[in-house]
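Collaborator request, handled under Task 6.
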Amino acid sequence: MNYILFFTAFLGVFVLLNMYISKRLVSKLDISDRNKRYLRIFLIINLFGILCYMLARYYVDTPGWLYFLFSVPIGVLFLLFWSAVVYDISRLLLSFAPISQHRRNFLKKSLDVTSMAAAATLTLKSIYNAKFVEVQKVTIEIKNLKKPYKILQLSDIHIGGLIDKSFIEEIVQKANALNPDIVVITGDLIDVDVLAAKETLMELAKLNSKFGTYYIVGNHEYFHNVEKIISAVKSLGIRVLENENLYIGEDGEGFNLAGVYDIFGYRAKKYMPNLQKAIKNTKDVPTLLLAHQPRFIYEVTGGVDLMLSGHTHGGQLYPFKFLVQLQQPYVSGLHRHNENLQIYVNKGTGFWGPPMRLGASSEITEIIITPSALY
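Structure tokens returned to the collaborator:
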């Protein structure tokens, strides 16, 4: 029932976007009725592709090339929508401009060409961007830390569809080349039935680090049987932090690593986060908390020095970032939440939906935590 409601709402949003593009962009272009008809047919085909994408997510045998064709329309429609919004505003401003009608007609035609060219260019650029995963390096000073540690953060990989075995192999190779002390995976690891992801998931067992690999669930795990996913990840030798903590490092010179379930657990009525349990009986050293969604930081009132999160994808497709900011306090990068607490938000190692990124690259984060120079 939840899937039906989600699909209905998901498709409904794109139908509304489609209508807006048709009425506020296509119908206003200075082109022939035939070409307008072709553009509207393209929009219908694009919408059909989105419907096929939603079905393909649950039929994992869909060939990669076909899955690609089904997933791209989501990004195409989103970028067209924002192009239509800018076009609408620009056309309105142009209508009030104190210029001759001849000049206004020329600028209107220039706006038509520019808007369509920009949408096409941004679509191609965003597809190209998604092919690359950058290593984002950041140094974070931690009060009372005795020695530096290198933490490698992966997040929002979303195994399934186009995130296949070869993608994970490349991620593992890059991660191991950085020679980290520990690896942390901050949720949304799997986005299909875990049995379908088994072969791909096994590649993560090849992650090498001095103190091991640690994982917390994200909201998407709850959509695909969170119990089975936790069990499958544990079978790889990866430690799943389930509202608990452990000590990392040499005695007296390390830090506490805690992890909580995702806040989606409150809606699912199971596997709910419990911060007090997660940081119970920690040693008198700095504490790092793994929490999938940045907004969990509102529940952190003390006992944590640094929180590592993901979930936002950095917005994935600009300017979607501004919509994400309505729900999350931080979208990407390092922030000081208050005097005692910092947060780093990973932009996502993989992607969800279309294989497209614009203004928010995929990242593997190399975090060096180091003793604070102020203490």
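The cover message to the collaborator said: "The mean pLDDT is 91. The chain has two domains: 2-129, 133-371. Please let us know whether this matches your experimental observations."
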